[in-house]
């Protein structure tokens, strides 16, 4: 063994080089590159390059807003795009469904989860893209207040009348008892409408069910944080509670238990989730007991964009007024037109259904044992239905209110399938991430820094100074990640320099695989 590398074991990364690793032209074995390095091994066999959000498939008024907000906030387009879809789902859930063919109907509400690290301007994007939903909600409340107040007064009058008849009733007078009983029943039958509520932030499953019951079976949870995932996992009860979410995604019957009152029944529950969470929350979601087996994980559309933090431009144009005004107006119109309507079913055209048959034919073999999607069948088995939901939302957003009943075209289905392909790729990445460990994630973070900086070599001290403190709070936190990168041949630790004098021990130096170095200028 070469004396200069005696601090490393002979196995693993120590075999990468037996001399200075940045000198090209050294001889190597069959598994080595031409300059003496072995080929780097991906940190995960399933490490994936994920596509960016296909903004162009959205209708113009939404696509323009996504692009403008993306530029202004210097965030990935995935963030604004996914929040825009959450807003559309909020407006349409429980009011529009799509019928692909007789016997197969899908609601259009979505569960979306975008994963980005802290400091990614999530709240700014949420305010721009989902703010119009809250504005429309305030307008719905204002429109409903006269009816709410009128009904309240009717109930007060009816209760007074019932109380008056009850006091005057006599046990000897059957007629007076009947009149008092009828009056009491009439008072009970008068239900004061709840104030319209479309959207909430952090909420428990029990409270979500109660609000859905008050709101005719529909609700959206739109949040730039992932607190609701902890609630689903049983933050307060200690037991996972996701029945509301399973049924709320599918538009199914839901019984709502109330303390001290009779249970309420929701014939069809429609829940929208639009969440922007830290990446760790995606793993937390995967660790909820029986979440995969019960189908909770398979209901989410995942987005794992690359963070732009550290690469953002500072001088950027504001969102043009005409773009933001058009977006707010169109989204508010959708909410206000749909809110008072009963559920409307929109049909696929014959050509769109044929396209769906083609998608199902292509998909089915991939679900079989040994197929590329077999390991995520709980998600992939819902993929065709997801594309149908996306087609319904695009169809709705494309058209004015009087055209919603027209058939969904093949062109709209094609755009929905492009969105579906995006979410399929990100679902594969999300399930990979759920199955990975913390050391691998840390190694990926360090490798991302290396690829951005492209150095020939670096010291541990230089790395620690440059990399985020949110992940690595002390130098020792870096060591497992560096060891893993070395074992996978992405870096090679240099021989320790001779220590001179009584000064501080030199920080360890690592050479970087040539594939990750920036070309010399």
Description:
The protein has 521 residues and is of the alpha/beta class. It has two domains: 3-44 and 438-516, Arc Repressor Mutant, subunit A (Orthogonal Bundle), CATH 1.10.10; 56-142 and 197-309 and 321-435, Rossmann fold (3-Layer(aba) Sandwich), CATH 3.40.50. 46% of the residues lie in helices and 12% in strands. The chain has 16 helices and 13 strands. The protein has helices at 60-73, 77-92, 122-168, 174-189, 205-214, 227-233, 243-250, 279-286, 321-338, 350-367, 377-380, 383-398, 410-435, 438-453, 460-466, 479-487, and strands at 96-101, 104-107, 111-115, 199-200, 218-223, 254-258, 261-266, 270-277, 300-303, 344-347, 457-459, 491-493, 509-512. The strands form four sheets. A five-stranded parallel sheet has the order 4-5-8-3-9, with helices on both faces. The protein has a three-stranded mixed sheet with strand order 2-1-10, covered by helices on one side. Strands 11-13-12 form a three-stranded antiparallel sheet. Strand 1 and strand 2 (104-107) form a beta hairpin. It comes from Lentzea tibetensis.
Tell me the number of structural domains. Answer: 2
Radius of gyration: 29 Å
Which architecture of the largest domain per CATH? 3-Layer(aba) Sandwich
Kindly state the number of beta strands: 13
Give the structural class: alpha/beta
Secondary-structure element order, N to C: HHEEEHHEHEHHEEEHEHEHHHHHEHHEE
Strand order, sheet with most strands = 4-5-8-3-9
Largest sheet: 5 strands, parallel
Q: In percent terms, what proportion of residues is strand? A: 5-15%
- The CATH topology of the largest domain corresponds to Rossmann fold
Please count the helical segments.
16
N- to C-terminal distance: 37 Å
Arithmetic mean pLDDT: 86
Considering DSSP H and I runs of 4 or more, what fraction of the residues is helical?
40-55%
CATH class of the largest domain: Alpha Beta
Q: Which spans of ≥5 residues are poorly predicted at pLDDT below 50?
A: 1-30
The coarse silhouette is elongated
Protein name: DUF3987 domain-containing protein
Region (Disordered): 20-39, 493-521
Organism: Lentzea tibetensis
InterPro entries: DUF3987
């Amino acid at each position: 063994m070469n004396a200069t590398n005696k601090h490393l074991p002979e196995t693993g990364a120590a075999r990468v080089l037996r001399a200075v690793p940045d000198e090209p032209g050294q001889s190597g074995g069959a598994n080595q590159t031409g300059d003496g390095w072995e080929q780097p091994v991906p940190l995960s066999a399933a490490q994936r390059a994920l596509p960016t959000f296909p903004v162009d498939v959205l209708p113009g008024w939404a696509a323009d807003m996504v692009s403008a907000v993306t530029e202004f906030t210097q965030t990935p387009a995935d963030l604004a795009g996914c929040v825009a879809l959450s807003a559309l789902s909020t407006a349409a859930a429980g009011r529009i469904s799509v019928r692909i063919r007789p016997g197969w109907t899908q609601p259009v509400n979505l569960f979306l989860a975008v994963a980005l690290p802290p400091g990614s301007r999530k709240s700014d994007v949420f305010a721009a893209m989902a703010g119009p939903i809250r504005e429309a909600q305030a307008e719905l409340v204002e429109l409903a207040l006269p009816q709410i107040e009128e009904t309240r007064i009717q109930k007060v009058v009816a209760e007074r009348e019932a109380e008056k008849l009850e006091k005057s009733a006599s046990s000897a007078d059957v007629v007076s008892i009947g009149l008092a009983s009828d009056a009491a029943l009439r008072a009970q039958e008068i239900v004061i409408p709840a104030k319209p509520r479309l959207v909430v932030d952090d909420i428990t499953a029990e409270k979500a069910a109660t609000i859905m019951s008050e709101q005719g079976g529909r609700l959206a949870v739109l949040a730039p944080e992932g607190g609701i995932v902890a609630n689903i996992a049983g933050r307060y009860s200690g037991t996972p509670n996701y029945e509301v979410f399973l049924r709320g995604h599918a538009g199914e019957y839901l019984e709502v238990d109330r303390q001290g009152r009779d249970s309420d029944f929701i014939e069809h529950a429609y829940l929208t989730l639009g969440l922007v969470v830290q990446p760790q929350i995606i793993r937390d979601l995967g660790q909820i007991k029986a979440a995969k087996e019960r189908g909770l994980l398979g209901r989410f559309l995942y987005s794992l964009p690359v963070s732009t933090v550290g690469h953002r431009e500072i001088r950027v144009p504001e969102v043009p007024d005409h773009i933001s005004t058009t977006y707010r107006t169109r989204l508010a119109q959708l909410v206000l037109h749909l809110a008072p309507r009963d559920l409307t079913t929109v049909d696929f055209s014959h050509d769109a259904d044929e396209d769906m048959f083609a998608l199902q034919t292509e998909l089915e073999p991939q679900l079989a044992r040994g197929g590329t999607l077999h390991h995520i069948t709980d998600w992939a088995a819902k993929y065709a239905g997801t594309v149908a939901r996306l087609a319904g939302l695009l169809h709705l957003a494309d058209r004015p209110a009087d055209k919603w009943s027209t058939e969904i075209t093949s062109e709209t289905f094609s755009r929905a399938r492009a969105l579906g392909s995006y979410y399929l790729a990100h679902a594969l990445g999300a399930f990979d991430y759920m199955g990975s460990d913390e050391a691998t994630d840390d190694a990926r973070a360090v490798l991302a820094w290396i690829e951005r900086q492209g150095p020939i070599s670096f010291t541990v001290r230089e790395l620690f100074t440059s990399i985020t403190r949110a992940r690595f709070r002390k130098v020792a936190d870096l060591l497992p990640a560096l060891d893993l990168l070395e074992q996978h041949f992405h870096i090679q630790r240099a021989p320790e320099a001779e220590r001179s004098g009584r000064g501080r021990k030199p920080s360890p130096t690592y050479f970087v695989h040539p594939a990750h170095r920036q070309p010399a200028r």
